[in-house]
Amino acid sequence: MTSNPGAGKLPQNFLQAIFARLEVCSSVVVLEELQANTPLTATGGELLELVATARAHIRSAGVTPGDRCALLAENGIRWVAANLAIFAEGLICVPLYSRQAPGELAGMLADCEPALLLCGTAVLRNDLRDASNGLPQCRLFDEVFFTASAASGLIDAPALLTPSDPLTIIYTSGTSGVSKGVVLTVGNVTHMLNCTSSRLDLLMEGRSRQDRVFHYLPFCFAGSWILLLTSLLRGSRLTLNTALPRLATELPASAPDYVLNVPALLERMRRGVDELVTAKGGVVHRIYSNAKRAMQRRQTASNARSTAWEGLWLWLANLLVFPVIRKKMLGLNVRALICGSAPLALETQFYFQMLGVPVLQVYGLTETTAICTMDDPRDVVAGRVGPAISGVEMRLGESQEILVRGPNVFAQYWNRPQETSAVVREGWFHTGDQGEVNAAGNWTVAGRLKNLVILSSGHNVAPEPIEGKLLQQIPGALQAVVVGNGRGYLSAIVCGPAISEESVRTGVDAVNLGLPHYKQVRAFHVRQELFSIESGLLTANGKLKRDAIASSLKAQIEEMYEARSKVAS
Q1: DSSP 64-92
Q2: 520 and 477, same structural domain?
Q3: Is the dihedral of CA 248, 249, 255, 259 positive or negative?
Q4: Quick check: 316 and 287 in contact, CB under 8 A?
Q5: Are residues 442 and 456 in the same domain?
Q6: Are both 414 and 468 inside the same structural domain?
Q7: Judging by beta carbons within 10 Å of its beta carbon (0-12, 13-18, 19+), is residue 316 exposed, middle or buried?
Q8: Most buried residue among 87, 276, 321, 523 by CB atoms closer than 10 A?
Q9: What is the pLDDT of residues 250-278, one digit of tens each?
Q10: Is the pTM for the entire model greater than 0.85?
């Protein structure tokens, strides 16, 4: 069997195409859920049976097409079946993040007013109930998937959906404290899956077997969900990690062709290899270190040519070291890593290129059905996020803001017409991101406009690039936040359980060497405790809640500036 859904655009909407693909793959495993003991699998036919069971249960709940149905559960085969069943019954799915604070989830439910809630476990339901004034009609997965008998004869075609029909409401991360429900339509998703599958055709060119995909990111996030639907559309074998502590062993064991990642994980993987090789020492460490230095000089110096010694180290590393690292970290088959959700440090992208694994970057927002740009596997430019996807226009507006127009742009914010009008003007969606595009149409993203630090000197500074450099230069640093609005200079909060004042000072000095005076960090605060979702200082998808951090650490920030002023005086 082949994973290629065929050239050209989908003949039906995406849901019809996925059901047709699952029929073709009726005896082929399309989902694998990794558990601590025995993995669970589902063929295309078995998944369709689960979908039919869930559809029968949803119908028995008395809901009608167009109603909202919330979905709160961990990743798994039953999550996928429930999601497809909701769509097949003509309902609007509202996926919720199981790790999000119950109070925040309760606010989302109050906002979208679902007629039905499908919940993975009683624990999740009870926590949500305790935080809510009242829950909608709620069914647990054990009830929804208890028996297939009620689904007899129900494996029929999904509901007929038109391109303009609302399909899902995905709540934004709420970095500013307010989560908004992004309404995506059938047309948005159908167009996006055409684009993603076509790009994967390029990556997998020459491979006729089923794609093998490894996945660990929550399905309730737009980009993760688009990869899930793309995998179903292509008939891929999607392997689901259900516990992050097992990721280091499960990822290489699954031998995927590609993996969707966030920058934080790639950076952690890079540092982990550095630490292991350093601890090993000996010839391996010598070859690795010298080859890495040679590659860094070649990548960062214009027109740099390797010396004979550098060429020797690189040859030895490519023969003896890099293949072993690649196999142990990513398995035997990996063609590329796909990365999105946040800026990726250039050094990290170079590192994986050195190992022989290209990192394909993706840029987009929930409001653009997760994607605006994608790297072309045939022409990856490090530090850029690729050209606009097919059918999508992008240009720069005031303050270098990225504007997007096309069939990927969302329909509206749920029940927020004024906020929708504020960001969609004359057909262009204003992303709130600063960017730059070269003559070839390849984009870079500097950071969020609302995150700009405006110094008392009038300089506007995007904090994200500086934060990325700090994490690169400070051993053990896992989070960094640059602050300084209205101040005379920048300061930083650096977090990590094993970092020291001395290592932070050394790292800050190294970063400052390459920056103009107004972008240099002049003071810092070391914090062993990490910002977390539970503390309210990270969003559900791990982004910094900058306003909340500034408020929570107000005393420490004031102390940084007061201490610096005393030294200066």
Answers
A1: -TT-EEEEE--SSHHHHHHHHHHHHTTPE
A2: yes
A3: negative
A4: yes
A5: no
A6: no
A7: middle
A8: 87
A9: 999 999 999 999 888 898 899 899 989 99
A10: yes
